[in-house]
Amino acid sequence: MKLVLVLLTLVVSAHGEPLRQLTANKVFKARVVPHWDADGNRFWYKNDLPDGKVEFVLVDAVKGTRELIAKPPPFKAKTLTPTQTPRASRRRAGEETAITFTNRTDAAVDIFWLPPDGGRKRYTTLPPGGTWNVRTFVGHVWLAATATGRTIAVFEAVTEPGEAVIAEPPPQPAKKPSLARIKDNNVWIGETALTKEGGYGGTIHWSPDGKKFVVMRTEKGDDRKLYLVESSPSGQLQPKLHSYPYLKPGDRIPISKPHLFDVAAAREIAISDALFPNPWSVSDVRWSSDARRFTFLYNERGHQVLRVIAVDAGTGAARAVVDEQSATFIDYRYKKFSHHLDATRELIWMSERDGWNHLYLYDAENGRVNNQITRGEWVVRGVEHVDESKRQIWFRAGGIRPGQDPYYIHLCRVNFDGTGLVVMTEGDGTHEIRFSPDRRFFLDAWSRVDLPTITELRRSDTGALVCVLERGDWSALLETGWQAPERFVAKGRDGMTDIYGVIYRPRSFDAKKKYPVIEHIYAGPHGSFVPKAFAPFYSSQELTEHGFVVVRMDGMGTSNRSKKFHDVCWKNIGDAGLPDRIHWIKAAAARYPQLDVSRVGIYGGSAGGQNAVRALLMYPDFYKAGAADCGCHDNRMDKIWWNELWMGWPVGPHYEEQSNVTQAHRLQGKLLLTIGELDRNVDPSSTMQLVNALIKANKNFEFLIIPGAGHGAGESEYGKRRRGEFFVRHLPGS
């Protein structure tokens, strides 16, 4: 037995990681980064070719021609328009681009990147007359500041590499100090305190005429902290204690509500909070241009009510302009969009009220729905651009092309009144878009897991094809024996709903042999997770090198399909779509007898770690071995926002019932648990409590703690090796 284990370890060591290295730099002509000229009619791009060679291509977008050129033409970089308003970088960053900073001031300036989660990250200091080039991403925001920290200019990266000229802004007229201020957590006008109860703070939201303002007052919530012990800190022998704020489901949260004040009368105008009694959050405070009212977005705790509330500036009377309610949940985090049209007093709003995620046009004065903008058994995946002058919306859609995978994303355009819907992209795959600087053209890069990227140039007015720029060349990749993932569709638990997934086979796949099956699971309700775009390497493929067939699919309860499909997760995260997944794997095995459903394993991290353990506990006849990394094994132990959104509030008995800890006594299969001791995302105690329950239930399992590691420790090189060895040992015949 010892000899067998040694040999297995050698197999794992030899085949665990090389696939990523083997497939690197084996696909060509799959990425086009355009460099446009000043008039937006032409651009050039570079192709990397085998053996380190390159080629340059010049495209005339107006004529629809492309030609090879010896070297790039000297197109002038786009000059970025600066502002002085700091704002965080977009979380959904776009394609790679570049910015060249030029310091035209008389003093040194510091350059900072503004991360999506706030703050500043300093990168360099530019001397007077100095320049600095940085690779960045579309939507990322950079700030130039003096040595004392004063902001000079803010720049946002755009599709084209741009030049950011840093110059001192012209002097502004001196402003009189405002009478209103926050002092000692109260509101003051001059030397008069208008409030005494405290709790006021944050931004003062002034009306356009300067006569009134809104300030938030916050009642403090619980001060729960998460404590982590770093066992082996660098630079010292003794352990180190870390702590940071970490609210969990059911905790008392800070409660913020808006308060309205009249400057001339030096008084508060009372607002009834009947429409916003229990806020999870109050945000997007906006005054109307005529200062008659202000609006704000109210998200109620429990996430079943989302309102746009308007408050009369004279009387404080509040009414709901939009009153979105759901019997399950409103996905405020990933399916929320509102756009105020101040000139016409309208509002574009996103909702799943008809069972699919769509856009609606409201009369923002009386709260009436003027019309539904998009409709059908498909979903809006995000809004790209609102053209108020043409009254058109550019958006991304899923499921809009009949016969295609409903997760494939297409670019669309529609008029505000719902007419003129145009699907701008065609190819049977998922699409990524890059517009030209003036938006007259766009590059459409589309692909599938089994088709390398095809890049097309299209017109923005009609979506018409101008020319095909490149077709990805994967011949060198295929020569390595790389197996393209196979797209596979099967019915779910109801026998009607299509479940979409992929099958990964070993490079050495032999159709005459039987292979154990391992599912790579992540069933977080916040998204869908089966890859749709082409890549030469997917992390799921690593285990195929050990002789396994690996599968992934998106079961019911995940996002980006219908509301009914998504609602399966409501107060039911423990379901994890596992009944659909079992049906899917059995259907795949019925079609491909090489898949041995008597030897099925499962693995995942974070929510996927929770899912993997749940699979072993609830379906032991099907899943025989599971590896779970950094799992949130009891939703009461995890971060508040993610769990209350899907599991609901207040915390009920379903939280306990679906806890892997309370169900630990059910374990029959083989289990490997891994955590990093410094996981700041998912409380490591969640895994420790599962370990405790398993010990009390006298269950055998394997447990790996990685000192100093954070969230996702199981994806370290050591963690992946241990996982590979685990499955080789516990799925016989692999």
**Count of individual helical segments:** 10
| Rounded Rg | 28 Å
> Architecture of the domain at 477-730, CATH level 2?
3-Layer(aba) Sandwich
Structural classification: mainly beta
Count the beta strands. Answer: 45
Distance between the first and last residues' Cα: 16 Å
CATH superfamily of the domain at 477-730: Alpha/Beta hydrolase fold, catalytic domain
What is the CATH topology classification name of the domain at 477-730?
Rossmann fold
Q: What would the principal axes of the Cα set say about the shape?
A: globular
| Average predicted local confidence, pLDDT | 94
Strand count, sense and closure of the main sheet?
A: 8 strands, mixed
Sheet-strand content, in percent, reads 35-45%
- Please mark out the parts with pLDDT under 50 across 5 or more consecutive residues, or reply none: 1-17
Strand order of the largest sheet: 38-39-41-40-42-43-44-45
Helix coverage percent of residues? Answer: 10-25%
- The first-level CATH class of the domain at 477-730 is given as Alpha Beta
